[in-house]
Amino acid sequence: MKSFIPKEVETLWTLFTAPTVWALHFVVCYATVAVFCAKRLPASFTFDDVRVVLVVVTLLALAMIVLSAFLAWRQWGFGSGDPPHDEPTREDRRYFQGFATLLLSGLSFAAVAYAAIPLIFIAECQP
Amino acid sequence: MTVELGNFSPEERAAQEERLRKVWQTPKGIRYWTSVNNSEIGLWYGVTAFVFMLFAGLLGLLMRVQLAVPENDFISAELFNQAFTLHGTVMMFLFAVPIFEAVAIFLLPSMLGARELPFPRLSAFGFWSFLIGGIFVCGSIFFNAAPNAGWFMYPPLATDKQYSGIGADIWLLGLSFIEVASIAAAVEIIVGIMKCRAPGMRINLMPMFAWYLLIVAGMILFAFPPLIAGDILFEMERMFDWPFFDVRRGGDPLLWQHLFWIFGHPEVYIIFLPAIALMAMIVPTFSQRPIVGYSWIVLAAVGTGFLSFGLWVHHMFTTGLPQISLAFFSAASEAVAIPTGVQIFVFIATMLAGRVIFSVPMLFGTGGLIIFVIGGLTGVMVALVPFDWQAHDTYFVVAHLHYVLIGGMLFPVVAGIYYYFPFVTGKKLSDAWGKVAFWLMFAGFNIAFFPMHFSGLRGMPRRVFTYPENIGWDWFNLVSTIGAFVFAAGIATFVVDILRPKPEPKERNLNPWNSGTLEWTNDPSESWGMRSVPIITSRYPLWDQPDLQADIEAGRYYLPDARSGKRETLVTSVLDAEPIQCLRVGGVSHVTIIAATALGGVFIALTFHWWITTVICAVITFAAIIIWLWTGTAPIPEAPETDVGLGLKLPIYVSGPASVGWWAMFITMVGDGTAFASLIFGYFFYWTIHDDFAVAAGPGVFWPMVALVLFVIAWGLTLLTRELNERWPLGARVALVAAFLATVAASLAGLAGPYMYGMDPTSHVYPAIVWIVAIWTVAHGAVGAIMQAYCLARSLAGLMTAEYDQDIRNVALYWHFMGVTAVVTFAVIGLFPLVAS
Amino acid sequence: MFSRPAAAATNGSGRMNNDRLTGACRPIRSEKNCGPPAFQSRCRRFIRPFISSLLSCPFLIACSGVQSTLDPAGREAADVAALFLAMLAGAVVIWAGVAGLLFYAARQKRGHSEKGAGQLILWGGAIFPTVVLAALLSYTVWLMPNVRPWFQGEEGRMRIEVTGEQFWWRVRYLEEGGNVAFETANEVRLPIGERVVFSLKTPDVIHSFWIPVLGGKMDMIPGRENRLTLLAEKPGTYRGVCAEFCGASHALMAFTVHAVEKPAFETWMTARRASSGAQDAEGLALFLKHGCSACHAISGTEAQGRIGPDLTAFGERGSVAAGTLPNLEEHIARFIRDPDRIKPKVLMPHFSMLPEAETDRIAAYLKGLK
User: Fold this and answer.
1) B69, B341, B378 member nearest C2 (Cβ)
2) How far apart are alpha carbons C342 and C349 in whole angstroms?
3) What is the ipTM of this complex?
4) Is residue A96 in some structural domain?
5) pLDDT number for residue C367
6) C61 Cβ contact list (under 8 Å, min separation 6)
7) What's the pLDDT band for C58 if we cut at 50, 70, 90?
8) Sheet hosting strand C180-185, strand order edge to edge
């Protein structure tokens, strides 16, 4: 298990992990239904198959966000040091990054979950 | 970071100040306009944007007079249509976006503790572009030639030359020009925030304004390029009859709607976030405490930045797309309300945890929030698909968007002007005038726009120049018109307050509001910005670092002197802001005005199809830019290192990812890549709507593959040059020549495919999109070849050496993007037809 | 500049004719009851005064007009109006809460704890909206396929093809097999209690077909055919409009909607199939002589032009020029003489060179068509 978890990296980019997962999930959902409804591709699929595929994609995305949240929590020292993280130290800068990333993971989780709601209620390509 | 602060005698200090003053001085007389100082450019930018806002506001009043009573004939239908098109266009492109660029350019250096942003000449270029483009677009209405198809320019109405005349060209070309200015500002802002913060200002100590601006500038990079791509397709249709949006030849008007709104919705947040950023500076000051929930603000800014790209189809809920697609966008549109809610609660929490001093900036700020919350709540409503089916394109949406933009943007900007006025001029605006202006604006706004919710729900569509009597809209419209004039009276009061002469303050007080952030240490009467660049250990250094102000002014920190006679600022590391370079930035220059004017000439001449003028202006632009680069970038310094004070020596010249130029290239190319991705999106979009797309005669496989291989070779040779340059200059030059030749050959091969197969771009959308993608790539190839030639010339002139190799490193970075663009282009146009059939 | 319609009717010299729209709604005003009788009379009495219009009617569903989404006569519009009222109630509560909190925060002087304030952000700013929005989103996503259900085929459905053109509506009633039963313009008649499928097209620019009292709008986009199903529930006469900006006279592109009982609808269909414009031979002769038939069709005659609106049974229509003028002989004559003045950039050429008597005669002929 341990080997699955990436090492801690010192960069600003990690802040954007969870929203990027949301963006990818969103694009995959949108592009899949757009191509399916316009071209009926892949031909052997029904709409229900597409829904199942996208539910799986959603679960994967949520799992990645949870992983990102875990990494953020680790960066935040597993919750050690409450906000506001405003000391001029490397430690507080890391805690700040961790905490902000954790918050963004939460928002991204909600946004991905929102995007899954249409998969529950809409059963056709109807306009 | 514990360092011994500098200590200078009064004589030394005076000598330092003299040198600094000389280096940073603003020219006098006519040459004043060649200034590139951030405080000048920021001010010009802001004033120009504000004037455009007043102009667009007058157009709004014109419309309100026409709609005051049913069946009015105050203005003609044609003038009304021009007025509402220009009102929207000017407010969005010439006020809302530029005003934030202005504020950012003006404030950021002081806020971050930098002397100047890294590319002052680029800011100046952006400003002049904006001014020329803006006057061109606004002026058109006086010649009855203004765009008249709505600020959204939907084809086929806007592509119909009979209907729109040259108005649509003015819109497309004028705004493309302004978009260039916005992207220039985005580059400047991102690099400035990432690399030019004062030592010690780690990212957890950055002012919130900077966080917001960083996100907004990033959004510009992804939001504006799709519109530029759309503009290119649109203008090709208008100018050369390439049928991108003409359904008879396979085009589709919906592609424009996608590209426009991929830009258009993030645009709303690009406007909104900087205004909220001003609030995030004002609220802590007047609550007399640090903000509560700094990390939440970062969550809100980043979250909004991302989610705003998943909203664009909510402008297209009635176009007949599958319901499931609509629902995805509805979901994202609801989700974006969460970070917005967080934002508002952060302000409330900060006020709760502090003791609020209520003054005019707070009045405008909280008044704006109260209005904005209504706009947010109606935003939640219109983002729900069934409700939007009813509300879309009605006055309900007009009400909603004005509540959002005026509450979320105009009021906070006015609050910001009241707050920062002493920072700009050293004098405060009047409290009494401010209160009158606020109440007039607040009351007038609500009287004008609240009734529109109901006229909209009662079925009144948008963009109507008249309406019938007795179907339930009469009173609402009359009330709206009255309110609009009250609102305008409020704005007029505010303008008078700004313009009226104000007495000199009795005593010098740089920080009249007792703010905590760094910009308030600046003396507006000096143009050097920070007297010395301080070491920061707090989010609110003026509150927490007791002697900061005095130490800065005594020159006890970094860069207290300007011995080199050049404009210098510090570059620090991204996360922890450790000093890494002493950067020399460009000074006074007229090359920026020439470049901007000539580029403006290109766009204006294109509008009127004056081909020769276009070519002449293009050549001048090109020459000006080359001169600018040759003389202004990457000069070899007199010594590798310089003393920046406090015993620290820093390199003057760095190259590769450590340099600001590399980052500017990277950021520009990200935007460029987004535009390219939009064109590729167009290719596949057409594929989804046509059964026979890419089945008809295409560019073949052979030539695209030749082009692909040659571009990859040129890419490889460019990288080889970069490596060779360090050890074997002659080899590097040979490799450059080879790379240049490969690029030229690759570009020709790229065009050979569509040309040899006789693809007629006016016959159908398929050849047209293949041509445009190929031309895009080849044009980038041409730029790549020019860069290679430039490096060769620099190397031969001894300006690029093994040690000082910024040029080739930046060009190599360009070529990474170039290589990917070429591979994607030729793989798609050459190989996708095989897959599709 | 604020010339009132009554005065303008006589001068007629403005750049545009001011009485153009006068009463356009009057002939097409709703015939239905708005609420119970007592309420109705109260509403009538107060319909004019400012206060009622501003304060009472917005918050009440009834009596807000023939084009109001708050006065629904169809399933979709009713569901959306109910949704709106629920959201409005919620929005008022939330707004009052936030504004109250803001006001309190600005006024209080004790300075609450930072921890408490942080909790407020978490619960008020993040968790509360997340939960409320999830519920709202779920409900409306569920509602979408319910108000606009999907029909695989259209067998047995009433179908009407509407084409938006600059600046009028071509309306074709389709037979079971998809053939055109007959064509009309700027007027849609549909039976109540039955889902009607609209096929929406356009040959020129984007328009949007919208009948606010029945349901949401749907765009008409060149090269595409959009479908919209509407279910009318209350009989009455309503107004529909173009909701997407489509050029100079976008504001003057409306149509009349008649929702009628099924038997009355069947009767009308039969009568409409048989109507002929050949009775008034003299009027018809003038109509043909001046070339009107190049663009306009009148069934049962030689006039078979397809460019402009079909004029069969024109006399029964509620308005002239797509909801712009009441259908009176004088308005018809004026429109024939100078259409551009009434409707800027309209495609119909002017006929001001014709002798006045002849235009009047043609107008009388058209008004007489049943």
Assistant:
1) B69
2) 12
3) 0.95
4) yes
5) 94
6) C70, C71, C72, C81, C85
7) very low
8) C180-185, C168-174, C158-165, C195-201, C226-231
From chain B, the residues in CB contact with C148 under 8 A are 323
Q: Is residue A19 part of a domain?
A: yes
Q: Are B341 and C94 inside 8 Å of each other by CB?
A: no
Contacts of C229 in chain B (CB under 8 A): none
Which subunits count as partners of chain C given 3+ CB pairs below 8 Å? A, B
Nearest CA in chain C to A111: C130
Question: Is the previous residue joined to B156 through a cis bond, with omega within 30 degrees of 0?
Answer: yes
Task: Report the C-alpha gap between C236 and C36 in whole angstroms.
Answer: 16
Q: What is the pLDDT of residue C155?
A: 63
Cα–Cα distances (Å) from B133 to B59, B82, B146, B604, C349, in that order, read: 19, 18, 13, 9, 39
pLDDT of residue C36: 40
The yes-or-no verdict on residue A127 having pLDDT over 90 is no
What single-letter DSSP state applies at residue C297? Answer: B
Q: How far is B331 from chain A (nearest CA, A)?
A: 5
| C138 contacts A124? CB cut-off 8 A | no
pLDDT digits 0-9 by tens, B756-793: 988 999 999 999 999 999 999 999 999 999 999 999 99
At C24 the pLDDT is: 36
Indicate if the pLDDT at residue C31 is higher than 60: no
Question: Residues B670-692, buried b or exposed e (16+ Cβ, 10 A)?
Answer: bbbbbbbbbbbbbbbbbbebbee
Task: Grade residue C37 by pLDDT with cuts at 50, 70 and 90.
Answer: very low
Q: What is the pLDDT of residue C13?
A: 37
The total of other beta-carbon atoms located within 10 Å of residue B480's CB is 23
Q: Which residue of C has its CA nearest to A82?
A: C115
In a domain? residue A123: no
- Put simply, the answer to whether A126 touches C145 (Cβ < 8 Å) is yes
pLDDT reported for residue A3: 58
pLDDT for C16: 39
Q: Which regions in chain B score pLDDT beneath 50?
A: 1
A85–B307 CB contact, under 8 Å: no
- Selected for mutation to probe chain C from B334, B388, B396 (highest C CB count within 10 Å) is B334
A9 touches chain B (CB under 8 A): no
Domains of chain C and CATH, by start: 281-368 (2.60.40.420)
Instruction: Please indicate if any CB of chain A lies within 8 Å of the CB of C146.
Output: no
Do residues B677 and B230 touch, judged by C-beta distance below 8 A?
Answer: no
Distance from CA of B42 to the nearest CA of A (A): 28
pLDDT band at A77 (very low <50, low <70, confident <90, very high): confident
Tell if the CB–CB gap between A39 and B295 is shorter than 8 Å: no
Is residue B337 less than 8 Å (CB to CB) from chain A? Answer: no
Indicate the pairing of strand C226-231 with strand C195-201. Answer: antiparallel
Give tens-digit pLDDT for C135-149.
999 999 999 999 888
The pLDDT value given to residue C141: 96
Alpha-carbon distance B356 to nearest alpha carbon in chain C (angstroms) = 6
Task: Answer whether C5 sits within 8 Å of B77, measured CB to CB.
Answer: no
Across-strand partners of C162?
Answer: C171, C200
Nearest 10 degrees: CA dihedral of B487, B493, B496, B502? -150
* Domain topology for B658-836: Four Helix Bundle (Hemerythrin (Met), subunit A) (1.20.120)
**pTM, whole model, 2 decimals?**
0.93
Task: Tell me whether A114 touches chain B (CB under 8 Å).
Answer: yes
pLDDT higher than 80, residue C18: no
Owner of token pair 């006569």: C73
For chain B, the domains span 658-836
Domain membership flag for residue A112: yes
Q: Smallest Cα–Cα separation from B367: which of C128, C112, C106? A: C106
What residue numbers bound the domain in which A58 lies? 14-118
Q: Measure the CA–CA gap between A97 and B203, rounded to whole angstroms.
A: 9
Q: Please report residues of C whose CB lies closer than 8 A to that of A117.
A: 134, 137-138, 141
Looking at the 3D structure of chain A, how many domains does it have? Answer: 1
